[in-house]
Amino acid sequence: MNALVFENIHQIAHTSVADPKILHPTDAIVKVAVSAVCGSDLHVYHGRETGLDAGTVMGHEFAGQVVDTGSQVRRLKAGHWVVSPFTTNCGQCYYCRIGLTCRCTQGQLYGWVQNGHGLHGAQAQYVRVPLADTTLLTFDAAMPPEAALLVGDVRATGYYCAVQAGIRPNGVYAVVGCGPVGLMAVIAAFELGAQQVFAIDTIPQRLQLAQQYGASPVNAALQNPAEILQEASEGRGADAVLEAVGSTNAMRLAYQLLRPGGVISSVGVHTTETFAFSPVEAYDKNVTFKIGRAPARQYMPQLLEAYFTSPYNTTAIITHRFALQQGAEAYRIFDTKEDGCIKAALLP
């Protein structure tokens, strides 16, 4: 089959690799209808995360159709339309039972093979899914595969970010970073009852979409976000800041925007070894700090169902679509945000 593989920093190649096969009786093979490039893929692309074997098939976002199942797969049949969270889930361990599915003791992240061990990704024509019955969710054929794909990662991550922020109707909220996850966090904040959400970024196309979703756009290159949040909150600051970038600058801004006693909810994938604010600063502001990988599988059933009643066009974030063989160009354009690129989908 054809796939996008990691070769080296800034080197993603479209090549032919072996078709995935059933390795365990709980596996399924999915024919990929659509995959996507995620912001966290860029950590590997730029070498901020290291250890990935050359030749690893990239990607952890996909939707498609089941074509084969292992002997112990009971719930899924060939032809079912399915979407996956970005990690596999056993559904039985302590963490799966409490809803922290992203920390499943048997879970694997798609697109991460290190020293020969791991799970190849989904930027390919086919993908192997371990623990298929408890990982994959079926979706109605009336739902576009692109919409389902978003639920498996950025939609669920944005929703988790808003949940962790403790949204209340009368609060003042800021979303730092209006990439795909930040835009989904804007939507989720309103879904959870927020009435006042400020969307902070420096890219006009992202701010325009945030405004379409109902947020008040703040261009940090032209405006002072802290002054705007102070003015909106009688001088206090934001009740919660939803940080969706994963950088030191974004985290520092989140701290600066927050009122004393407020919440920072951070779902951006951080790769630095230190925090952007000190324990002293956190203490002096009584900060509640929540950070970590989203348990996407936990939220996916309700978000798939919500698609048919939601007033929000989530797929508007997919601004660019590429054939799989254009994968290297897709990574470049997504990375540089060329031509207003917010999210890049890949079509096998």
Summarize this structure as a short list of keywords or feature phrases.
17 strands, 6-stranded parallel beta sheet, Quinone Oxidoreductase, Chain A, domain 1, globular, 348 residues, 7-stranded mixed beta sheet, alpha/beta
Question: What report would you give on this structure?
Answer:
- The chain is of the alpha/beta class and 348 residues long.
- β6 and β7 form a beta hairpin.
- The radius of gyration is 20 Å and the shape is globular.
- It is built from twelve helices and 17 strands.
- The N and C termini lie close together (10 Å).
- Strands 3, 4, 5, 8, 9, 16 and 17 form a seven-stranded mixed sheet that branches. The chain has a six-stranded parallel sheet with strand order 12-11-10-13-14-15, sandwiched between helices. The chain has a two-stranded antiparallel sheet with strand order 1-2.
- The protein has helices spanning 41-46, 94-97, 132-135, 145-151, 154-165, 180-191, 204-212, 225-232, 248-257, 279-285, 296-306, 327-336; strands at residues 2-8, 11-16, 28-37, 62-69, 81-83, 112-114, 117-119, 126-129, 137-138, 173-176, 197-201, 216-219, 238-243, 258-266, 288-291, 318-323, 343-347.
- α5 (154-165) crosses α6 and α5 packs across α11.
- The protein has two domains: 2-153 and 295-347, Quinone Oxidoreductase, Chain A, domain 1, CATH 3.90.180; 155-291, 3-Layer(aba) Sandwich (Rossmann fold), CATH 3.40.50.720.
